[in-house]
Model the fold of this input.
Amino acid sequence: MSALSDLSERLRALLFPRRHRRELEEEMRFHVERDAEERGRRGADPDAARREAALAFGGAERFQEEVRDATGVRPLQDFAADVRHALRGLRRNPAFALGAILVLGVGIGATAASFAVVDAVVLAPLPHPHADRLVRVYPRVTRNFGNLSTVDFQAIRDQQKSFDAFGGVALATMALSGTGEPQLVYAGRTTTGFFRALGVVPAVGRLIQRRDEALGAPPVVVLSHALAGELFGGARAALGRAVTLDGRSHEVVGVLPGGPAAAAGLAGWDLGVWPAVQMETPTRRGPFWIRGIARLKEDVTHAEAARDLAGISERIFPLWAAGFQDREARFTPVPLREAIVGDAGRSLGLFAAAVALVLLIAVANVATLVLVRASARAQELAVRVALGAPRARLVRMVLVEGLTLTSFAGLAGLLVAALGVRLAGTLAPYLPRQAEVGLDWRALAFVAAATLAVGVLVSLPPLFAALRPGRAAGLGAGARVGPGRGTHAVRTALVTAEFALALPLLLGAGLLLNSFLRLQRVDPGFDAAGVVTTSVALPEARHPEEATPAFWRRAEALVAELGGIEAFGLSTELPPSQPGNENNFDLVDRPVPAGASQPTSPWVYATNGYFAALGVPLVDGRAFRVGDTAEAPPVAIVTESWARRFYPGESPVGRQMIEGGCVECPRTTIVGVVGDVKYLGLENAGEAVYLPFAQGGPRDAHLVARGRGTTAETLAALREVVRRLDPELPVAQATLAERLAGELADPRRWTAIVGAFGATAVLLASLGVFALMSYSVRQRRREIGVRIALGAGPQSVTWMIVRRGMGVAVSGLALGLLLAALEVRLLQALLFGVGAADPLTLAAVAAGLLGAALFACWLPGRSAARVSPLEALVAE
Done:
């Protein structure tokens, strides 16, 4: 109880100082009157007894001091007094206070937002039970990772000894109909072990079971909680209902749980429908289409699981070696979080580093301004020292002033952080785990810690100035107290640090801009103007395999009847970045060595009209013919890049290849060469292999047309064609120009973000050197006046100021080069056509930064040249 009463007394004294003072005075009077009564009983005169009692007690002030020391209220009251003093100082300098709060608030808020994104995407565990034991199983073939084949999946499922559960999912786009307007939905065709590995418990019903995977089993599907509500009004209402996927009716047997975990998706995939996958008996090692997910047993390490999977790889290789020759291929477990995040962690690291640099520059800038302000208060600090203020008192006062300032900046930073988190989806729409990004308690704790750290950093320079020896010297008549060499050195060091931190940011922006401009100039291999696409997927239930060729012939005939179409074709892939099908092959006359992996290329089924619609020229050989049907020998057309890679200096026309490791299949003959088209992104080569659309019989295809009218008219015409063919078919439409712009969206976004940070850094650094030189001019006003009186010209005075300021900037650039050397590793993966240490970009960035510094130094130099000698001497 004594501790509680002591705490209560301290709080009352701090919160209600006037009432506490009255209570102390009443207690003092009580003690004085008792002492006076005691002295009166001993025979003293009443008035004398009262005076003697008051003198013996020591007076009200001494009593209050003793009580405050005894109760521990003094530190709290002194702290409150320091806070009030700091607030009064901010009110007296509203421009400084507002500018510092805004600069630091933006820095703290941006840093907190970047922390929230990095924490949610990279650091936080996945929203699954015991997520550290979840792995993605890849078949690591030579040079890259990929998906599993049916052979791979079944071998791992039946032979593995390291997993509590192992399952697979095949991502697909499916046509959903029967519940309103037909629509395309993203689906995950799953096996039983997929949900078991992730530890999913359905909200209602059940999940996929082993019997659902048997060929011919009734089709079943599990819906997401959101889609069940959209289609049927709720999870329970959806149970037992039917949805039509790709023309087949599927019974809804379960609904996944909702909430924040559902928003994050399953293993990183936020999909609406999860039907059961049914695998046919494989006839070859490929194709590779399944993503494997597993949960490690509690006593199994990643290394042990890797050895277990490697043994399976070795056992199944001889069985399928005729069509799959890569003896070095090994099944490899990769932590699921690492598989989901991928290269996003590197990009986020660059973003976080850029934000941190901006914050440090902002801190240095505000610290410089605070130091200048503290120099203006040198007289006040000197008086405090002369009157006996202890060093600890000055330290506390300066720290409280800095922390008071940054506390307001921290509140502003919370608003900036909330806005930044909201903008994260816009700035990085394809960021993994984006639904998990938010301002949670960790982000709020980070804001508090950053505010405290920034407050201390901002306070250090003025604290150094306040504790400088000899602060009280020279307080005699006419003496001036101003900043000494030590204070000037601190200010110079801060501005130098600003330039050192600005260089890596500006260099990053310059490199990304250079890369983006080069990427924009890349020839995608096609003319996107006026070209539109309509994507169609034929459900097997309504369009059996033998009927699909007739469907596509009918589509071509209907489009030919349209008057506004200049060229039209069909294709299974779309540029510039849709390599939906990459196939391995082996050249008959130049086979790969035994045991080596076969090369792969984008594999595109197309009609001649597709080349005409995109403006792709025929370079060598012939185009596809009417007779190139499924009954005719297989033929192919390759791109120029493909020909240069595999037949440099020769024509590939007439050469043959083995497709997909199928050694028993007829050889495919190359009959032509066309211009390059980018299918693997603008930064990659334009290699591709084209096959006649009639020889593939694909279910999913893109109707590609170049219209004579507007793109809207062409899109409407293609949509009407599909409606006439099958009103239940959902379609997805876009222009090729939109697809091309989308390919440039990420580089443009990163260039804009880092460029904005770089511009902010240059502005802050320039303001820092401007403030430093302006203050230097004010402090040296008498010296400058004397120089001018002695005959110094305006240009020499200006050059004197500019020379000193540029010396600071050049020193900062030299230090910035060391920081830039650490930056290049993060940048290299984001650049195209330019090295991270590109000398031209570095020279341009350095010149730009020095130019900004020169202008910032010239302004105070020009002001110095206008100093009147008479005015300076009279003022002195």
Residues 471-482 have pLDDT under 50 and may be disordered. The first strand starts at residue 134 and ends at 140. The two ends are 65 Å apart (CA to CA).
